[in-house]
Design brief:
Glutaredoxin, five-stranded mixed beta sheet, two-stranded antiparallel sheet, 184 residues, alpha/beta
Length: 184
């Protein structure tokens, strides 16, 4: 069973993951000027993830211009994450690995069990998280979040850039924050 959904304008769970460059990503330690864009991907076994992350790499300079720091993370081991990085050749993406399944659940990500070898001939891990995309403000609160139950129909990064522009230009608040009782 998944954890309760994260609430906009509220603190997100802690995130402290090793990066392939040897450092660590600790959410909040050195946030982006306006947002941290955290993209959780399924892992090396997912061909849709590779295509999705390549699109993010292509648009990375535009996110950087807007004060957005990009982190991509999976529950893959270091070896699998390195293989994905070698496949992508995407130096603009800070690649984190080793996301625990407990942490994935805290972020509201869905978990899947292995179905064996994928269409690209790579074995799925026994358990792994499904995709999620989050914008976190420098104060550690959630601005935007989207999670998927499967690899298809993810938020498009070009659309997200337009939304960030709008949010910056009109100081648009995070929405979906109401957690109170629903009137009868």
């Amino acid at each position: 069973m998944n954890a309760t959904a994260l609430m906009p304008r509220q603190p997100v769970p802690a995130l402290n993951l090793p990066l392939l460059d040897g450092g660590r990503f600790v959410l909040g330690a050195a946030p982006g000027e306006r947002f941290d864009l955290i993209v959780f991907y399924r892992g090396l076994h997912c061909p849709i993830c590779a295509k999705y992350l390549l699109e993010l790499e292509r648009l990375a300079p535009e996110f950087t211009q807007r004060g957005v720091q990009i982190i991509v993370a999976s529950s893959d081991t270091e070896d699998r994450a390195r293989r994905m990085a070698a496949k992508l050749q995407a130096p603009a993406l800070k690649m984190a690995y080793g996301l625990s399944l407990i942490s994935a659940r805290q972020w509201g990500l869905y978990l899947s069990a292995s179905r064996g070898t994928t269409s690209i001939g790579i074995e799925e891990p026994a358990l792994f998280s499904e995709p999620g995309v989050f914008l976190v403000r420098p104060d550690g609160t959630l601005y935007y979040g989207a999670v998927q139950t499967m690899p298809f129909a993810r938020p498009q990064f070009q659309d997200l850039l337009g939304a960030i522009d709008y949010a910056i230009n009109v100081n648009y608040p995070a929405r979906g924050e109401y957690g109170g009782d629903i009137p009868a």
